[in-house]
Design brief:
Layout (H helix, E strand, L loop, with lengths): L7 E5 L3 H12 L3 E6 L15 E2 L7 H14 L5 E2 L3 E3 L2 E3 L3 E3 L1 H14 L3 E4 L3 E6 L7 E5 L4 E4 L1 E4 L5 H5 L13 E11 L7 E3 L4 E4 L4 E5 L1 H9 L6 H12 L11 E10 L7 E6 L2 E5 L3 H16 L28
Parallel strand pairs: 1-2, 1-12, 2-8, 5-14, 12-19
Antiparallel strand pairs: 3-7, 4-7, 5-6, 9-10, 10-11, 13-16, 13-17, 14-15, 15-16, 18-19
Length: 331
C-alpha cells in the first residue's frame, strides 16, 4: 500500500485515540496527516483523564471484552505502569495506569517513522464529501488550505458533532458528544503509594516519583449540581480531607496542577466507531486511554476494507438507551 498510490488519510484530533490511530494507519501504509488545533497532543480530555487501565465492572459483555483487549495491548509498553488496583475490596493485579505524555510521544514517533505528518495549532474549518474520483473528502483548514484526501477519521472528542455538521446530521447516539466534566489533580507527597485505590469517593494512584494523581466522581457530581467549576479552590480541600483515609497527609504546598475537561461521551456511554458518511469515519470513546491501542488496530483494519466485528455493537446507527451515572472512572 506504500508508494505514490497510497491512500491518503486525515485524522482530526490528537488525543490518545487520534495519535494512536494515526500511527497505526501510517504503519499500515496509508499516507497520514494528523491535525490538531492545540499546540501539543493530548491537551483536552486526554490530559484530564485519571488514565486507569482496567476492564472490570463494565457492561455490556462486548464492551468489557474490548477493554480486556485494550489492557492486554498496553501491557509491556514503556508508557504503561502495571501497579495493580484495589476496587470494591477486590484486587486487580493486571491493572495499571498510562503516562499519557509518554504514550502520545511514542505514537507520534511511530507516525513520523512511517512517513506520516502531524500538524499542531491548525483547526479544521469545514469538511465536505466530493464526487471527484481523485479524492473523496475535502478538508478545509483555518490556514486557507484545502486538503483533498481519500479518507477522514474524526477523533475530535466533544468537537465531533461540529465537524460532522457539514456532511451529515450525525448519528443519534452521538448527541452532542459531551459527557460530564471531569478532572485529575496532581500533588506531591512524601508518602509512598504503590497501587491504585478506587472508589466513588476517591480515586488515587502513583504518578511517578513523589507525585500522586487524584480524582473523585462523587465530588465531580456534587460540584456539577452546584454549578461550580472544577478548580483548585473547590477541589483541593476536599481531596486533601479524603486522602487522610488512605494515610496520605497532603499539605497545601503539595498541590501541583489540576486538569479539567468535559469527557467525550455518547448518549449510552459506549464507544462510537464506524462510517458516518462516505469516506468519513468517527472514533469516540470516554474510555480512550484503555481502548486506544485496540481501537486503532480495529479501525485501521476497517480502513483497509476488513470489517472488525468486535466493533459491531458500537456502530453509529445502533439503537441506544441513555447512560446511567458511572460508579467509577474509566481511563
Amino acid at each position: 500500500m506504500t508508494g505514490p498510490s497510497a491512500p491518503t488519510v486525515v485524522v482530526i484530533g490528537a488525543g490518545v485515540l487520534g495519535v494512536c490511530v494515526a500511527a497505526e494507519a501510517a504503519a499500515a501504509g496509508f499516507e497520514v496527516t494528523l491535525i490538531e488545533r492545540e499546540a501539543e497532543p493530548c491537551r483536552g480530555a486526554s490530559a484530564a483523564s485519571f488514565a486507569w487501565v482496567n476492564a472490570h465492572d463494565k457492561h455490556p459483555h462486548a464492551y468489557a471484552a474490548l477493554n480486556e483487549l485494550g489492557r492486554t495491548a498496553h501491557a509491556g509498553n514503556r508508557w504503561f505502569h502495571p501497579v495493580s488496583a484495589q476496587f470494591d475490596a477486590q484486587s486487580y493485579p493486571d491493572d495499571g495506569y498510562v503516562d499519557t505524555e509518554a504514550f502520545a510521544n511514542a505514537q507520534l514517533g511511530s507516525l513520523h517513522s512511517a512517513g506520516g505528518t502531524a500538524r499542531f495549532g491548525v483547526t479544521v474549518s469545514c469538511l465536505k464529501t466530493t464526487t471527484d474520483r481523485a479524492c473523496s473528502v475535502q478538508v478545509g483548514l483555518d490556514t486557507g488550505e484545502d486538503l483533498r484526501v481519500d479518507r477522514v477519521i474524526i477523533a475530535a472528542g466533544v468537537d465531533s458533532p461540529v465537524l460532522l455538521a457539514g456532511i451529515t446530521e450525525g448519528p443519534g447516539v452521538l448527541g452532542d458528544a459531551t459527557g460530564p466534566a471531569g478532572f485529575v489533580l496532581r500533588a506531591s507527597t512524601k508518602a509512598k503509594l504503590g497501587t491504585i485505590h478506587a472508589s466513588d469517593l476517591l480515586n488515587i494512584r502513583p504518578d511517578g516519583g513523589n507525585r500522586i494523581a487524584l480524582q473523585s466522581l462523587a465530588l465531580e457530581r456534587s460540584l456539577a449540581a452546584k454549578r461550580l467549576p472544577l478548580t483548585r479552590e473547590h477541589v483541593w480541600p476536599e481531596l486533601r480531607a479524603r486522602a487522610v483515609e488512605h494515610n496520605l497527609e497532603l499539605n497545601d504546598a503539595g498541590f501541583l496542577e489540576i486538569r479539567a475537561a468535559n469527557r467525550p461521551q455518547a448518549l449510552d456511554g459506549l464507544p462510537v466507531t464506524g462510517w458516518v458518511a462516505p469516506s468519513v469515519y468517527i472514533l469516540l470513546s470516554h474510555s480512550g486511554v484503555t481502548l486506544a491501542p485496540v481501537l486503532a488496530e480495529l479501525v485501521v483494519d476497517e480502513l483497509r476494507g476488513i470489517r472488525s466485528h468486535e466493533l459491531d455493537p458500537f456502530r453509529p446507527d445502533r439503537p441506544y438507551s441513555h447512560l446511567k451515572p458511572p460508579r467509577r472512572t474509566d481511563g
